[in-house]
Design a protein that fits this description.
Blueprint (H helix, E strand, L loop, with lengths): L4 H11 L10 H7 L3 E2 L4 H10 L6 H9 L3 E4 L5 E4 L1 H17 L16 H12 L4 E2 H11 L5 H11 L2 E4 L12 E4 H5 L9 H12 L4 H8 L4 H7 L4 E5 L5 E5 L14 E2 L5 H4 L16 H5 L3 E5 L2 E10 L3 E8 L5 H18 L4 E6 L9
Parallel strand pairs: 12-13
Antiparallel strand pairs: 1-3, 2-3, 2-5, 4-6, 5-6, 7-8, 9-10, 10-11, 11-12
Length: about 375
């Protein structure tokens, strides 16, 4: 069966809870999405606000404090907001690939080349121990142990080599303080679980992002062995083809969405999972090319209109005002512009309650800088 791009679009939005806001709890959404992208503090809050009805941001802050949610380096070597079971069972899949990174010549201009990885890891385990430490404290210890190396590169190496997470207060509502790092196992008082099958992880990916190709799965996870893992699932998955004839896999009981169902405007957080988790992004980005990561790094975020990326926005805050500037990537109708403006005002009310809100829709492809 061949699936149109529009069917894939609406199915993705439905599975991401972006067609209508969900009554699910924050942990339930995090489990379903296999974590939320969380390199910076605000994006997961925007992502949850866009997906959960009556979302209360303090639930995330409380969960980080009571350790029922954690911010941990997982898929693609990036920080995700996940539940403890996922932290413990996904990290063993991710760690082997992460640990290869620091000793390549391209890492910090070869800063770690020539050192014994196991010796470096041993020092990292001893330094970090069982108590959280700031990056500054880690750098000081790195300088003592490796006086002829860049201490920042040594710390980055430890953070790749060891399963670590960021402890609060970073990641709480309105808190973008510098990271405090902890090893996963002492923070959660539980061992890593290396027995969790990759095939089960891919089932969950398909429930949240499918139907998808093996290359989509690899782009999402940065892991290898996709085809073998899918083959292990047997009749738990079914196959389709896309408009280009590529094979797409899906869970056997996965429902496909009506391609004609209306898709409301959504303003997402920068680095949102829905834009970054496929190799072929044409199901949500019209030309298949998501904005470059350097744009997201400048806190530029996607606007979805009729289900597809159709603009970018950025919020500028002063003591009294909150201004949300939007740059469409195509011409919008008056109805679309009005819907975008309404959602933008609602988002400002969530993010910056108490400040005077202003929404500006610029010309197509205009520069977002003020």
């Amino acid at each position: 069966m061949k699936l149109s791009t529009r069917v894939l679009n609406r199915t993705l939005l439905a599975r991401q809870h972006l067609l209508e806001r969900s009554p699910r709890t924050v942990p339930e959404i995090c489990d379903h999405l296999v974590g939320l992208q969380a390199q910076d503090s605000p994006p997961p809050f925007v992502g949850l606000w866009s997906r959960i009805a009556d979302f209360d941001p303090t639930t995330v802050s409380d969960a980080l404090e009571d350790r029922s949610l954690v911010r941990i380096t997982l898929m693609r070597g990036t920080i995700h907001l996940v539940t403890p079971p996922d932290a413990l069972r996904i990290a063993p899949h991710v760690q082997p690939e992460l640990e290869k990174v620091p000793f390549r010549k391209g890492f910090n201009y070869g800063a770690m080349v020539g050192l014994d990885p196991e010796e470096v890891r041993g020092h990292g385990e001893a330094v970090l121990g069982d108590e959280p430490m700031s990056a500054a404290e880690l750098r000081a210890r790195a300088a003592e142990l490796y006086p002829d190396r860049n201490p920042g590169a040594v710390v980055q190496t430890w953070l790749y080599q060891l399963p670590v997470l960021q402890t609060p207060p970073r990641g709480k509502w309105k808190d973008n303080s510098r990271p405090i790092w902890s090893r996963v196992e002492p923070w959660l008082d539980a061992p890593l679980d290396p027995s969790y099958p990759l095939a089960e992880l891919l089932v969950r990916y398909l429930r949240a992002f499918g139907p998808a190709s093996t290359m989509d799965m690899q782009t999402w996870s940065k892991l290898l062995g996709m085809k073998q893992a899918i083959d292990e699932l047997g009749d738990r998955v079914r196959t389709y083809t896309d408009e280009r004839g590529r094979t797409l896999y899906d869970v056997a009981d996965g429902e496909l969405a009506d391609p004609d169902v209306p898709a409301p405007v959504r303003l997402l957080g920068w680095y949102d999972n829905v834009v970054l988790s496929h190799q072929d992004r044409t199901r949500i980005v019209p030309d298949g090319a998501a904005p470059p990561l350097r744009a997201f790094a400048a806190q530029v975020s996607p606007v979805l209109v009729d289900g597809f990326l159709a603009g970018l926005y950025k919020v500028f805050v002063t003591a009294e005002t909150a201004r949300l500037r939007i740059s469409p990537t195509r011409t919008w109708t008056k109805t679309e512009s009005a819907a975008v403006a309404a959602e933008a005002h609602a988002l400002l009310g969530f993010l910056e309650a108490g400040r005077r809100a202003c929404v500006e829709i610029l010309d197509v492809d205009a520069d977002l800088r003020p």
